[in-house]
Design brief:
Layout lengths: L2 E7 L3 H14 L2 E7 L2 H10 L7 E4 L8 H8 L4 H4 L3 E6 L4 H9 L3 E6 L4 H8 L7
Parallel strand pairs: 1-2, 1-3, 3-4, 4-5
Length: about 130
Amino acid sequence: MMYSKVMLIDDNDLDQFVNSTLLKKSGFVDDTIGFVSAIEALEYLETVEDDFPDLILLDIKMPEMSGFEFLDRFAKIPDSRRAGSCVYMLSSSNDPVDLQKAKESPLVSGYLNKPLNPKIIEDVLCPKADGN
């Protein structure tokens, strides 16, 4: 699987840099776009026409707007625009409530623990077509 654009939403600049670098080096990602604010990421998604990301990696604990608040607003973007996009929560939270909430959301494809690493990228985000 190949992603033309991955959006990273995380208030930590270092996490943004590391994750972007890992994704680009993986060979599965053409381009990344990062936002330290979930509000700014939503503003981008609500206005972008033909450059919607294929994959969104979303932190949970952020100031101003949490990852779950982001999802509430993201759900209001028309299905036709977000149809080809999947969302993974990428968080350091071990809170069982967060895990359950992510699992129950129809918008969330999975929950990944920080830090992102090459094995997660290869095994979870970019699995082989034959399922191995």
